[in-house]
Amino acid sequence: MKELSTAISDLKLYADKIVRTGLVVGAGGNLSMRDGRIMYISPSGFDLQEVQDNQWVRVDIETGEVLDNLKPSSEVLMHLECYRKRPDITAVLHAHPSYSVGVSSTGHSIPNLFPDFPAMIRNVSYLEYLIPTTEVLADAVAEVIQETDVIVMRNHGVLTVGKTMKEAYFFMQIIEESAKVYTIASTVGVPRILTEEECQALRNLSSEKYRSELLKDSK
After folding, report:
1. Burial bucket for residue 212 (CB in 10 Å: 0-12, 13-18, 19+)
2. Residue 2 in this model has a pLDDT that exceeds 60
3. Which domains are assigned to the chain?
4. What does the angle CA 160 – CA 129 – CA 66 come to, to the nearest 5 degrees?
């Protein structure tokens, strides 16, 4: 598992990135990392760029007990379910990327329009709108997270998980770029979607497999 200093360093780095790249606004979004039996999660109500090293909230993954005085993100239940269902992951990222929310709110799925999407993301799960921060949403995430690394919540946002925060962040970037390309293409004409055969060929490329492995490397 990551050492504390490394986990906090990664959380700070990617908290800053998701704000600077417009994936969240203000105090929106939340992220966490597993460290042994606990997770460190962003505190409730904080601008993610302003969270100090000692303000990442520790929560016991098994019991859900909060181990610090600060209140954890209101989506803490959703994060806990991801770690409980996926012992292989160390990072959970939840953001509100504009194009992904926009496309999904129309009832559409975000299609495969360029190579990186099918090559790097095995599949995407979609959830109909559920009230954020509730057990209902956490339970819905728990039902599908074993099958995917990317969940799009219609009219709400996107959740990604990874073996590293680098991987979770990359998945978030790719789904948002895909939604953006789809939106642009749809204003010009009818987008050509990659066929399943083309997607499978991309997944089999050794270069894409190598890139995927690099994302799982915490160094």
Report:
1. middle
2. no
3. 4-215 (3.40.225.10)
4. 55
Lowest mean pLDDT among 12-16, 120-124, 178-182, 203-207: 203-207
182 alpha carbon, distance to own chain's centre: 20
What DSSP string runs through the chain?
A: ---HHHHHHHHHHHHHHHHHTTSS-TT--EEEEEETTEEEEPBTT--GGG--GGGSEEEETTT--B-SSSPBPTTHHHHHHHHHH-TT--EEEEE--HHHHHHHHTT------STHHHHH----EEE----TTSHHHHHHHHHHGGG-SEEEETTTEEEEEESSHHHHHHHHHHHHHHHHHHHHHHHHS-PPPPPHHHHHHHHT-HHHHHHHHHHT---
Letter for the amino acid at 92?
Answer: V
Residue range 30-46: mean pLDDT, rounded: 96
Q: What residue type is assigned to position 87 of the chain?
A: P
pTM for the whole structure: 0.91
Integer Cα distance of 150 and 48 in angstroms: 21
pLDDT of res. 1: 47
Question: What whole-number percentage of the chain has pLDDT above 90?
Answer: 87
What integer pLDDT is reported at residue 219 of this predicted model?
Answer: 54
